[in-house]
Specification:
It is built from eleven helices and two strands; from the N terminus they run βααβααααααααα. The chain is globular, with a radius of gyration of 17 Å. The two termini are 33 Å apart. The chain has a two-stranded antiparallel sheet. By secondary structure, it is an all-alpha fold.
Length: 222
């Protein structure tokens, strides 16, 4: 079995912001739209798993295979959040979007697809992707902390270059191709969040090629 050698990345400050200011945003909106605490409970479980089971492993780097048991839980709880807020027509791309981008990035990192993981992390930075994070008060802070964290490890430079090449391919696509592929691209962008736990663990297994973590890259190649 091949072991994924992951460059150390400390995202603890991001989780700290999500726990305080992010929780305040999510809690306020959850209280407005939902009668029970199910949604906020899912949010809290995600943050606990990130804080105690995921972030310390990523911060250490190297073999990150120990995060495998927690990936399915993160995806399940993340889907509860996105489905709930979308159902009431009030999906806020701030804290919820940031957490979902973080979960997808972690799944990519686990599978060895570091460039795609970095693209998913761009979802935490306002305006970095075609669909921006929105007007959340914490988005700017998250973006700043993320950039600082990435710059602390020079090993990410080559992966950032690879991610930039992928973004370059996206910008070169003609409008007709984008229109024809739009539904597929949207589906692929949320692929990791929508599949069930068994399928997630199969996709992020070491036996499959990293590109199978997400279909987005292949769809964006004309």
């Amino acid at each position: 079995m091949t072991i994924v050698k992951f460059p150390a990345l400390n995202l603890s400050e991001i989780v700290a912001i999500l726990k305080t200011e992010g929780s305040a945003e999510v809690g306020a909106i959850a209280k407005t739209f939902f009668k029970d605490t199910k949604v906020f409970d899912s949010w809290s479980r995600i943050l606990r798993i990130l804080e105690f089971n995921i972030i310390p492993v990523l911060a250490k780097g190297g073999d990150i295979s120990s995060i495998r048991p927690f990936l399915g839980i993160l995806v399940k709880e993340g889907k509860i959040l996105t489905d709930a807020f979308t159902a009431v027509g009030s999906f806020i791309p701030g804290p919820i979007g940031i957490v979902c981008s973080l979960i997808r990035a972690i799944a990519c990192f686990y599978g060895g697809n570091i460039p795609m993981g970095l693209l998913e992390l761009l979802g935490c930075i306002p305006g970095a992707k075609a669909v921006t994070i929105g007007s959340s008060k914490i988005a700017g802070k998250i973006g700043e902390r993320l950039m600082v964290a990435l710059k602390k490890n020079n090993a990410f430079e080559k992966y950032c270059a690879e991610a930039q090449l992928l973004l370059g391919k996206i910008s070169e696509l003609n409008s007709m191709f984008i229109i024809n592929k739009l539904d597929e691209i949207r589906k692929a962008a949320g692929y990791t969040m929508s599949i069930g736990t068994p399928k997630l663990l199969e996709i992020t297994g070491y036996k499959l090629a990293p590109k199978n973590i997400t279909k987005l890259g292949s769809l964006l190649t004309p």
